[in-house]
Design goal:
With about 375 residues, this protein is α+β, with helices and mostly antiparallel strands. It has eight helices and 14 strands.
Length: about 375
């Protein structure tokens, strides 16, 4: 019989899945059903279509990590959307088949569909986890960004005080930022925006140790009511001997029961003009070192217990204050600190509306921006 060329063959009117084709392979010519050839060519494997999970390097910053994961997530979703629907199990076979026979055509087809569906399910679960992880990374990055920028301006977000304090009690310091705030409306109707000024700032301090997780908060602007240290223009006895502790307790008693419930009395080393002493306070004025990191014109009898609070480090946005909620009483207002003047017997120190650390007669009515500790 004469050898025939492919070009001499009659064109097939149609091709059936049971038709046999000749295949030239490296180990010799083989035959294969058309159905098997199509299955080998057209059945996509989702695992092969999806990009590998990105490699995270130790030097990668949080934005870089989030970017890599976001790109991988988009690629993976696109690949799965493009995957053939025929890759999934559409219906269970109705004809009889032998599931124990690996050569049974129905068994092989069902096996391929199950594997493909399992791959799709696994990939979707992986993507859902990555989407969740990416959301956590993005949220953590936003919190860290707020904290880094806190002293430069008003970048904090508002919290419900109960939600905030749940994080504080759990020691979840990375879930909220310095500069975040809550708004207190006291029993007289005055609104006060309290900002997170420090985290665990007095931990282990005191002649009686403070060992509870806590935050220090302060009003963004001075309280509505102004106060004097005394009417006699003296700083003898310093902070403890003045009217200021009682003045601030008057303000504390106006706070809501909820806020007062979170307030913590701490042992505080106070500057009492030429000496110092421990005192129990639940509300108090900041000392110069807590505001600006140095004593300025203050008598230096604070015992070294003070440290500059994080909200005030690196910028003046929160050091310079107005008075009243949203500066409704004054756009700029000077306010008292906890320190008697070192050089004079009639002055206490204050923080000027110009940004200077200075001093003034004890009888002057000035702004107050007290600190409170919440735990």
């Amino acid at each position: 019989m004469a050898q025939r060329k492919f070009s001499d063959l009659t064109v097939a009117a149609q091709i059936n899945k049971s038709d046999v084709f000749a295949l030239e392979q490296v180990d010799g010519t083989k035959q294969a059903l058309f159905e098997k050839i199509c299955a080998a060519i057209l059945t996509p494997e989702i695992v092969e279509q999806t990009e590998e999970f990105p490699t995270i390097s130790p030097d990668d910053t949080i934005p870089v990590i989030a970017g890599k994961i976001n790109k991988w997530q988009q690629d993976a979703l696109k690949k799965i959307e493009e995957s053939k629907q025929s890759n999934m199990i559409q219906e269970f076979p109705t004809e009889e088949f032998d599931p124990e026979n690996p050569e049974d055509e129905t068994t092989k087809q069902l096996h391929d569909e199950i594997i493909s569906a399992l791959l799709a399910y696994t990939m979707n679960e992986k993507i859902l986890k990555v989407v969740s992880d990416h959301g956590v990374l993005a949220a953590d990055y936003a919190i860290q960004k707020r904290e880094q920028m806190a002293s430069y301006g008003y970048f904090g977000v508002e919290w419900n005080i109960d939600d905030l304090m749940t994080l504080v009690k759990a020691g979840s310091w990375d879930k909220f930022a310095i500069g975040d705030y809550f708004i207190e409306t006291n029993t007289t109707g005055e609104k006060i925006l309290f900002e997170v000024t420090g985290k665990n700032s007095y931990l282990h301090c005191g002649d009686t140790e403070l060992n509870k997780p806590h935050i220090v908060v302060s009003p963004r602007d001075c309280l509505q009511t102004y106060y004097k240290y005394n009417s006699s223009n003296t700083n003898a006895g310093g902070y403890a001997a003045s009217l200021m502790p009682a003045n601030l307790e008057t303000e504390a008693k106006k706070f809501t029961t909820k806020l007062q419930g979170y307030m913590t009395t701490i042992r505080r080393l106070e500057n009492n003009k030429g000496t110092w002493a421990w005192a129990s306070r639940r509300i108090f004025l900041p000392g110069n070192p807590e505001l600006v990191g140095f004593h300025g014109f203050a008598d230096m009898w604070d015992g070294g217990a003070f440290n500059q609070l994080p909200l005030f480090v690196g910028g003046n946005a929160h050091l310079l204050k107005g008075a009243g909620f949203n500066k409704s009483k004054a756009a700029r207002m000077w306010y008292w600190t906890a320190d008697p003047s070192a050089a004079y017997t009639t002055y206490f120190c204050h923080f000027a509306d110009s940004g200077a650390s200075s001093y003034l007669y004890a009888s002057a009515d000035g702004g107050v921006a007290p600190l409170i500790v919440l735990s």
